[in-house]
Design goal:
259 residues; disordered C terminus; alpha+beta; elongated; 7 helices
Chain lengths: 259, 259
């Protein structure tokens, strides 16, 4: 079977299976992206989480980081208030940790070129920790990830280590990150639509035109005069995150010019 | 110029340049890995940070997440004690955030196959957020990243929001994560050595042998009888992290068999 047919078969097989997540369905905020991707023959999504605030409990001691002993006290895909956390914390007698986790999306791609397009969209939308995985036999996946998290230990052996005022302050930050994450998801959707439209146009155009067109797309510095580049906003650069390459604290040698 | 010669030229150019990081040199814990990679013709490192505890100050309000207003109050590549943070916090009149950031390493690779080998080594060593980037003209980079972070807001508009006891508790966790990160770096170095040795052996062996050998390497489930697979320890799986695919909270459809 050729690669194209093989991918098609896998996709059909994957999408016909039940959703094995605890929730059992795709998160509301990411449904449009999942549908857009699964509607294209070169992609299918294998896992997704739109972003969430979670309160985890780890065994009896967070210094013994055993995954087996971890349970969830609270999971919310919507903004939370202090009382949600206070109530959930009552169930904890180990070490409770509050986390904000941004969008995570895994997409299987027919070929490397498809993953590259999706990767550009992800980076341009602010998901800077995204990356491609290529398996030994060529299975190509894109993981969409952000650096925009939060991970705060709250209690130790059942004892609350912070004040209620602090939890309130923390949730304001977590909710704000959730909003920012939502904006990025919207940006991702818009960028993706443009990229896929462009892809369709170039696929149908003359081969020479196609090459020319390809070389012009996904410029890091967008030309404000070009409507199709508008998804690359400067907003991305204003948000504080672990932007590794810009970070003066990381040992850096000059990159050769982009090729 | 062919790709091989082009890569060689870029590498020479990159490694001859000064280190533009604030520190001006490669972190001690990652020197061996950097040297091992740069000693191979198919790789060169472009940035690295072994892992660190940092105290950042963000403008006057962490809800206005402007990167421009961010400054560093403390950076440590070694374990910290409470007083280090207390002293540094005295300089803050905005919003201070304590972070633990694990190893970050960017490696430019001659071809995709080289990045795949390095990616396997990274994943097997516990750096699960690692990923490949392929530029429009084929520039291939591997980013080594872990999920093993910590990000805790400590003060708001200059006011400390937590107790000293909490800071002490937090640093125990951060220091523990630093230790775990160090173990993973060692694991990465050992795995990398084995992978590169194997690569050399297979490159020099008969082509048919080479293919056979390649298909046997980097098994997820290692065969305990085989010495060359010993770098894949079960330890990795015990550590609590955002292991996206295992997470029952993430909408998941069945992966087609690895190919």
């Amino acid at each position: 079977m050729d690669r194209r047919a093989e991918f098609k078969r896998w996709k059909a097989q994957c999408l016909s299976k039940a959703d094995f997540s605890r929730k059992g369905c795709v998160d509301e905020d990411v449904v449009e992206i999942v549908q857009l991707l699964n509607g294209r023959e070169q992609f299918f999504t294998t896992s997704s989480c739109a972003g969430r605030i979670i309160l985890l409990e780890q065994g009896m001691d967070s210094l013994e980081v055993q995954k087996q002993n971890c349970c969830w006290l609270l999971v919310s895909h919507k903004p939370c208030v202090k009382d949600d956390v206070i109530v959930a914390l009552k169930k904890a007698n180990g070490d409770a940790i509050l986390k904000f986790e941004p969008l995570v999306l895994h997409v299987q791609c027919r070929q490397l070129q498809d993953a590259q397009i999706l990767h550009s969209v992800a980076i341009d939308s602010g998901f800077r920790n995204s990356g491609i995985t290529v398996g030994k036999r060529g299975k190509t996946m894109l993981a969409v990830r952000s650096t925009h998290g939060l991970e705060v230990p709250l209690s130790h052996k059942g004892k609350l280590m912070v004040t209620e005022e602090y939890i309130d302050f923390l949730l304001k930050i977590a909710n704000h990150k959730m909003e920012e994450n939502k904006k990025r998801i919207e940006r991702f959707y818009n960028c993706l639509q443009l990229a896929l439209e462009k892809e369709t146009t170039t696929t149908n155009s003359h081969p020479k035109e196609k090459i020319k067109e390809k070389n012009n797309s996904y410029k890091k510095k967008s030309n404000p005069g070009k409507a199709h580049d508008k998804c690359v906003t400067e907003e991305n650069d204003k948000v504080l995150e672990n932007d590794d390459d810009d970070d003066p604290g990381i040992s850096v040698t000059i990159f050769p010019e982009d090729y």
